[in-house]
Amino acid sequence: MDMSTKYLGLDLKNPLVAAASPLSREVSSVRQLEDAGVGAVVIHSLFQEQIEHEDAAHDHFMQLGTESFAEALSYFPAQADYRRGPEQHLDHLTAVTKAVGIPVIASLNCTSTGGWTEYAKKMQDAGADALELNIYSIATDPTIDAAAIEHRYVEILRGVKRTVRLPVSVKLTPYFSSFANFAKRLDDEGADGLVLFNRFHQPDIDLDALEVVPQVVLSAPHEMRMPLRWIAILDPLVKASLAATTGVYTSLDVLKLLMAGADATQLCAALLRDGVCTTARILDEMGTWMADHEYESVQQLQGIMNQRSCPDPAAFERGQYMKALNAYA
Ligand SMILES: Cc1cc2nc3c(=O)[nH]c(=O)nc-3n(C[C@H](O)[C@H](O)[C@H](O)COP(=O)(O)O)c2cc1C
Questions:
Q1: How close is the Cα of 34 to the center of ligand 1, in Å?
Q2: Verdict on whether the full-model pTM lies above 0.90
Q3: Which domains are present in the chain?
């Protein structure tokens, strides 16, 4: 069975990519991911704030800054709480790229443009095969409109694309009013890939301590329906590679996403919950399913269920919604 796929211009032996997660913190665990069979690995993110903390001039500016800026700074982990500073992150990236034979995708997690983009070039020099930009910010300022927010994303992409010759993907949230328009815009701006979708971590409240508590809740399997829908809609519209992330747990999830048009599927919670050996099981089950249904390669089934032949995807979506409500007994 030919499981190979092309993602961000890279040849992957199969479409299972280990998403950015704590599993890439150690070289040994990335080796385990490779041994378990993943086609590529995304290294956990280096955060814009980590880079900016490191900058002494910036620190000085912070001390002189406004009260609210100083307070905002206290929301972030102290530099010592990160396992590695930016330079150690780069050393780790270099060690990983030397240790494994699969493509290694570095990740920068950011909210705005700035001097941190030079780290994109440093990641390239560290041997990364591609770069994933996770733009993670919640729009809370009522004076900033949607157009300005989209413009900021585009500016970040442009800044990074100017800095590196590596393929660059953008990991996005689904929370844009006109998602197809925005995805096409990033595609036109030269995004080599779109990673759909980033999950916002929803904080909880500790009633006794009266504190907001950050908490990781792993995705539920049904959450893969959101990337499934959007990949099917976008596949005929964009040149960029499409990767699914969120709720990918089983071989059937992967097959559905590939049929919708995904070039790769990223696994995080499945690996954390079920162990890295789940990769081999998924690949094995995919092979069996494909043989039973007379497919010889992943490429043969990629995109066969996208919405290319659907003249009005919005009407289709509304029809499905009405049918689902009517069918509920
Ligand atoms: C503990 C944990 C750490 C994560 N770290 C990162 C990260 O460093 N950078 C990033 O872009 N995404 C990170 N993610 C998000 C995952 O890469 C993935 O996109 C998300 O969990 C949805 O996929 P899943 O349903 O397979 O978990 C993290 C997720 C978890 C649960």
A1: 18
A2: yes
A3: 5-327 (3.20.20.70)
